Fold these 3 entries.
Entry 1:
Amino acid sequence: MDEPGEIGRRVQRMRVERGLTQKQLAHPSYTSAYVSTLESGKVRPSETALRFLAGRLGTSYEELATGRPAHLATELRLALTDAQRTLATGAADEAAVRYRGLLAEAEELGLVPEQAQARLGLGECALESGELPAAIGHFEEAERLLADEPLPRRARPLRGRAVAHLLAGELRYACYLLESAIDELGASGLADPDALVLLHAAVIGPYMDMGAHARAAHSAELALALAPQVSDPALVAGMHRQVARTFLAEGRMADADASLAKAQAIYGHLQLRTDLAHCHWMRGYVLAQNGELGTAERELRTARDMLSARRAGLYTAQVEVELADVLRRLGRHEEAAGLLAALLELGNSHGAVHAGGAHRLLGLMAEERGETESAEEHYVQALALLERSGATGDLADLCRLLGDLLRRTGRVEAAMDAYRTGLGHRAAPGTTTLGPAPSAAFRPARVSGSRWDADRAE
């Protein structure tokens, strides 16, 4: 809102242009004396007063308060919506170009909410292209612009920042961000269903990677219970994709596949290509865990091709780890090794969890060829990466592989050290090192037989 003097002069100019007296403008809610005081700049009008006067003058509150024609802001919001659609259905780089132009326009007009929306879009584009530091910067700036807004309005950039840290291999920090937001929502009484589903669905991934299956199941149950209250179908689809991971951990293959099928149907309808690719990705993973390797390969190749077409390099590289594991199990070692080598050439941009997974697979293939020194080297590199990431379940499995290798080569003490490291990370299943689990602003009825019930001791 402009200074009182500027607003007063604007009100006076519009009143005179419309041939109204101060009494006519003020009737029936205010007095002519109030309008006179306002026009002289001696009082700062409330939003209620300005909205009333804007209605009498046939203009918008925004134009009266700031001098900007209302259509400029509306057109900018429409353009931001178009850019969001481009991101959902087209290439991230194309959407990023549009968002950058719209950000400059929003900054020129001084429209803070629209600046935040453009920053959020740029962050999502950077996530897709694997530019994680840039993504974090955009999400942080969006949060800063929305600092005075209630938490539900800040949930999307906060979730984006957490996902960026997760993709960079910083699992514990991603959990901390999401858990803190969930707790804040509960403590403030702002139990917004959209925000809660967004945050609970996002935290399932890092929980699963850290071996915190009880927490993942709890978040899945909360998200599923809230889903009927959510108005955004894309959000519901994303929740179904994440919930499938907890069903998988519980051995509920049919339920996992059903959740993924629901997500695919919604994303196909909305043409959200990247998220649909993630559904194919997770379905391929489910099929691989169930031993259906041929079908799993087809799903994973579909996911990789869709992500590659979107030029989503980070996600493309990550899905290739899953595909390489399927190819290895099918006996196509050379093809699998080629995929993993390409992934490792990306350096640290793809995150420690997937780099560690690549080294683990290369170690397994080296062992199968009888190349124990090469296998040990890959296992050690994977261990260093996974210890930094906090991927507890993957780390424990890797320690077992390394310990077995060391034992077979006669290094019993070193093998025991590796086993102890793995056992240490498995000492408390269903927990993390972050302290108490986040409180729930909404608690559904307990689901009989769920993994959450089994691990309730957490």
Entry 2:
Amino acid sequence: MSRLIVVSNRVPMPAKDGSAAAGGLAVALQAALQARGGIWMGWSGESSGDREPGPLAHLQKGNITYALTDLTDTDVEEYYRGFANRVLWPICHYRLDLAEYGRKEMAGYFRVNRFFAHRLAPMIEPDDIIWVHDYHLIPLAAELRQMGLKNRIGFFLHIPWPPADILVTMPVHEEIMRGLSHYDLVGFQTDYDLQNFAGYLRREGIGDDLGNGSFDSHGRIFKAGAYPIGIETAAFADFAESAANNVMVQKTRRSVEGRDMIIGVDRLDYSKGIIQRLEAFERFLTGNPAYQNKVTYLQITPKSRSEVPEYEHMQKMVAEQAGRVNGAIGTVDWVPIRYVNRSINRTVLAGLYRLATIGLVTPLRDGMNLVAKEYVAAQNPDRPGVLVLSRFAGAARELKGALLVNPYDVEGTANALARGLAMSLGERRERWSMMMEHLLSHDVSLWCENFLRDLVTAPELARTGA
């Protein structure tokens, strides 16, 4: 079995007791690394100021070597805050109005990918399999190929991939697509993302769909496919059941006694549709006055990239909107919206999912959205809740038992809330069982196995096009 090298912008370090970091992705990748032996490399999250970063910091845990590098202040500003989060992120989430193009930031993005490649290359052995993750590191394979590496290299994009009309607004769209052609396998979250990728190649005349998941572009033949990421379903279900005994979960249960609870959990990000969701909840309450004082909406929203002005502005907007609704509709003994602007312990979160009658997951655009899957996995099989899910989340391609909504349609989302709260227990169980069965058979371990299996078989095709 070949050694595995995982590269990502940030590296989820194991806990001091050696256990995997919280989250299904970290659990799956650390298990794969532990089985094969390997390296997980990425940015330490620290800056070296204006000095050249020192050597890689290494930490050995079992069969896994964690290799971390600092970046300079300029690197962080141009590569991470600049191009990755102010160009690629909004473009991939269909927000042309928020993309801020700057040649300096674009150059910084490619420069830091070259820096990563030069730090990674000395650790790579001829038979190693390399798996690169997410939009921060798209050019990494091209840099490694430039250095003569012929290893199997795969790439997985965790966020959406936009259609050609949107992608071509980015001045370096050709360089980004050329970078993807240097991988042996490119993985997307959904078939829609894969179709957008293939459509760009066809429309721009720079590649061909050869069928059976193979593509020819920039003189290379490579594979691309949809690999919807899952969660550690069975483990999370057990986790949620035991979380019922958590003190904070019990306090929350007592505080909403006699009322239904709706839960939303999102990073503070404009792609999550939080403003539209608050409007929909307000419309639901004003249109269904019998539910006033009978339902509580808990929105948990940890801060995200607060150094970016758009996020700081959004934080203020969300807080003001929640306050306005509470002031207009709330009573002395009932606060309609509970807005929590910080991270919540995962044990508590699992228990809160299980308490909620409705999981409200309505991003304007999302690669997958694992909150939707966690909410389903956390439910009590005897009394499951209802998932209200945006049709623009990747999870909507899999979770057929959800009530799908258009988050831009505030009235439609409000109606879905009313329908979910009034839904019979029989229908709730039927919908939940369908989704849970899918999640159990398509968990994060299978996602990891499927991608690595296809990556192992991909290089023969890639070499014929070299």
Entry 3:
Amino acid sequence: MIPVTSFAGKTVAVFGLGGSGLASCHALKAGGAEVIAADDNAENVTKAAQAGFITADLRNLTWTNFAALVLAPGVPLTHPMPHWSVLKAREAGVEVIGDIELFCRERRRHAPDAPFVAITGTNGKSTTTALIAHLTKVAGYDTQMGGNIGTAILSLEPPRMGRVHVIEMSSYQIDLAPSLDPSVGILLNVSEDHIDRHGTIAHYAAVKERLVAGVQAGGTAIVGVDDGFCRDIADRLDRAGKNVERISVKNPLASGIYVEHGDIVRASGGARSEIAALAGIGSLRGLHNAQNAAAASAAALAMGISPDVLQNGLRSFPGLAHRMEQVGRRGNVLFVNDSKGTNADATAHALSSFSDIFWIAGGKPKAGGITGLAGFFPRIRKAYLIGEAAQEFSGTLGTRVAHEISQTLDVAVEHAAHDAEAAGLTDAVVLLSPACASFDQYRNFEIRGTKFRELVQALPGVKPVV
């Protein structure tokens, strides 16, 4: 835990008592603050009370007694309208912040030079975060990984030299961290997302920009420049005097890090050098993962990690569970768990990474279905359709893709494994990338992915991927 000492002797309201909210309560209390905990969910309030915190309906309290309102990132700050607790705080002149801001203040107080890597982007931030954490561990750092990827930031160990915090951040978390100042900040990409919480794509992009704009003096801002929003952001950072490292997987750069023919290349001052190779690294297949690897490599180099250590780290990266996770192999058939592919855009990344695919898809359908994936249909040898979306997806595939309605995952795995082996292909892939939510048959994508892994590993002759 990171005790929050910046509010010692003061009273702080915490609203939103899920994982990060309750962690904030513990960290504030450990640092000497009095905490008043609240939530619109009565069950969460009960849990906070059982943990020993004072709970109250904040509507009935005098807000001038509060030094701050610590808001959970899931609670609306601006759109579609501010939560009532935010309006109360603003009316009383009380600052509204989140757990990331509390961390930043503690780091500045106690270890301002401790390495702090912050990652955001519409897509790829979890894989990039996990990859950077892996690289820093390989390089010998005491690595603390958390934030949006899982562990609440204040539940990690405190900042100190030799210890690096590698933190994934959503736009909601950035919005609640006005003094965010990482030593290395990464913005991967910006595309339309979370407009319901930010109002416009322009505002959403502006929130993302704050992570790299806040990089501390002497730090590095790493920006993917394969979309227009990020290209403009990189240019603004340049004009502001920031140290900017551009990355691209689409075009060579005169200055920056880019991917060309499977190699990560660095260009600077007219010189060009290959710093790492991605060929043969199964956990980093596909153009999207090439961007993740380029960003992680830029971060590693900014931290002084050598190219040799970087290459070893890339090769030993196991990947994230449920995201293009290689769960087994039988002969020439590779089994890949991409249960996190819960919409067509995410599934497009997976389909683009292989050529001979036995595709398991379906679940609770989302708007648009799989019509946008038609360009990848020639890669699909056969599709195995499950769940509520099976009939809809069957209609979309029509006669263009051989398919069956398997209905359940166990039937789909059995049939896909048999057909892939019988096809006699050199590199057949049984791919679970559903393009759907899991909620018709599974509580979440993790449970669905775990079930797929168990089914695959129970097949005769399946071996781990090494």
